[in-house]
Design brief:
Shape: rod-shaped
Helix content: 55-70%
Number of helices: 15
Order of helices and strands: HHHHHHHHHHEHHEEHEEHEHEE
Oligomer: single chain
Strand content: 5-15%
Number of domains: 2
Distance between the termini: 69 Å
Radius of gyration: 41 Å
Structural class: alpha+beta
Number of strands: 8
């Protein structure tokens, strides 16, 4: 299906004309064989002379029809080939021309077959209208079946060009017959036409228009039945493939999409509602891909847990009381860092610093609620519940302190940990808001961070946080003196890692 414009144009140059001319020549030979050897010739005084005349006329008409058919194919394909050579998106007119080539080619075939039917009818009219009617009906029915096969072959051969023409945009109104029309046309031309011919032979024999022996009628029945089976099978198979293949491609792409792939794409090469289905699937995938990108970006901005909760529960302003642990971390000497280094280098250092912070908090089951310049507010227990929020916050504080010293030694930071009840929820206006936590533990953690910057261990926690911790984490901390933190009325007993 895929290929460069030059490759597509090269593939179409010869095979298309060969398929179109070949299908019609084979159809003409089948019709000639029926008239020449099988069908009874009613009211003919000299059958040998009549058959010889038809043979000569058949050869002469082929000499006329084949070049005309080839020239028509080349003429209809000229704008398609010129567009392919230009290697650009098609105009509306060029797209329309590509999609309508099979239908326009069908008109050319129908005209040639109609002229042939008229010519052979007039040629045999001197032997009586019965013979002329038999020839006209035979040529007409054979031409209808042949045109159906040629049309379906043209659609199949032109798929690469149609896919390229429809790659940029798909017309809202289908340019080709839809599924229902295509199935009805398949039955009518592939099966109905040969069966109609068989029916007419039987009617002619019963009404006396034909006067054939039983053996001759048996041969005619076998021939027309064989044509009905073979042509019907060919036309039905081509139609089934033209419908099943694009649907199967969509089904396989849908399976990949269900497995999590978002780079799925199906080629659009059908100008009917099948093509609209293909294009609709691609638009759906683009929408899903954009949604996933927005979801990923949203999660990176506000935190994956907050984003997931917002998508599942919806977004409302306000909050709820939650028992949480709060960790606040702030760089030491950030003013000097910004003064001594260029801005781009400062950003690089901050990104290394925050990478350690985010990794430690995520590993402990917490959420980085916000970045505030060179500081970060981390919450354990909101928006998702945590079995041991205080213990996780204390463990994360020790981990990030050690990792910063090992991995980002140029960054020195103070860390404060507190625990208690806060209000957690969306704060702001309907047009712009953020998920945050508000309460005394947040203020306490911030003040502990300021004190921690002056301590060698660079970490301070409140007694409440340590006593709330479960497992072995509380044993890793040592309680010390109490101190009244800035902006608070009651003293806070401090704790540091042992």
């Amino acid at each position: 299906m895929r290929g460069t414009p030059s490759e597509i144009e090269r593939r179409l140059r010869t095979p298309y004309a060969a398929f179109m001319v070949g299908a019609n020549v084979i159809g003409a030979l089948v019709v000639f064989t029926l008239v020449r050897f099988l069908l009874p010739l009613p009211g003919v005084d000299d059958p040998a002379a009549t058959q010889h005349l038809n043979v000569v006329a058949f050869g002469a008409y082929l000499l006329f029809a084949v070049p005309v058919g080839v020239l028509s194919v080349l003429r209809l394909m000229r704008p398609v080939r010129e567009w392919l050579r230009s290697d650009r998106a098609p105009t509306d007119a060029e797209q329309h021309a590509v999609l309508l080539v099979p239908a326009r080619e069908l008109v050319v075939h129908a005209v040639l077959w109609g002229l042939g039917a008229l010519a052979f009818t007039l040629l045999n009219l001197h032997d009586g209208w019965h013979l002329a009617l038999v020839v006209a009906i035979t040529v007409g029915l054979g031409g209808a079946a042949t045109c159906a096969v040629a049309y379906l072959l043209a659609q199949r051969v032109l798929r690469p060009a149609a896919a390229r023409a429809l790659a940029e945009r798909v017309p809202d109104d289908p340019a080709l017959p839809g599924i229902a029309d295509r199935l009805l046309l398949t039955w009518a031309l592939g099966t109905g036409v040969p069966v109609l011919g068989l029916t007419l032979v039987g009617a002619g024999q019963l009404t006396g228009v034909l006067d054939a022996s039983a053996d001759r009628l048996a041969l005619v029945a076998l021939a027309l039945g064989g044509i009905a089976l073979s042509v019907g099978l060919a036309v039905t198979a081509l139609t089934a493939q033209s419908l099943a293949e694009p649907l199967d491609e969509v089904r396989r792409a849908l399976t990949r999409l269900q497995e999590g792939a978002t780079d799925v794409h199906v080629d659009v090469y059908d100008g009917s509602e099948v093509g609209l289905l293909q294009a609709g699937f691609n638009r759906m995938v683009e929408g899903l891909r954009e949604r996933e990108e927005l979801r990923d970006l949203f999660g990176r901005q506000v935190g994956e847990d907050v984003a997931r909760q917002a998508l599942e529960r919806g977004i409302t302003l306000g909050g709820e009381e939650r028992d949480v642990a709060v960790l606040f971390i702030d760089l030491v000497g950030s003013t000097e860092l910004a003064h001594d280094r260029p801005p781009t280098e400062v950003v690089d250092v901050l990104n290394e610093f925050f990478c350690v912070v985010v990794a430690a908090v995520d590993a402990a089951g917490g959420t980085v609620n916000k970045f505030v310049g060179d500081a970060a507010l981390c919450v354990f227990g909101a928006p998702l519940d945590h079995d041991d929020a205080a213990g996780a916050a204390l463990a994360a504080a020790r981990t990030m302190r050690d990792q910063l010293r090992d991995e980002v030694p140029q960054c020195d930071a103070g860390i404060g940990v507190s625990a208690g009840t806060v209000v957690a929820g969306n704060v702001g206006a309907a047009e712009r808001f953020e998920y945050t936590v508000i309460g005394d533990p947040v203020n306490e953690a911030s003040r502990l961070t300021e004190l921690a910057k002056a301590r060698d261990g660079r970490i301070l926690a409140s007694e409440v946080a340590v006593r709330s911790a479960g497992g072995d984490e509380a044993a890793r901390w040592e309680l010390g003196d109490s101190e009244v933190l800035r902006g608070r009325a009651r003293p806070t007993r401090l704790a540091e890692p042992r």
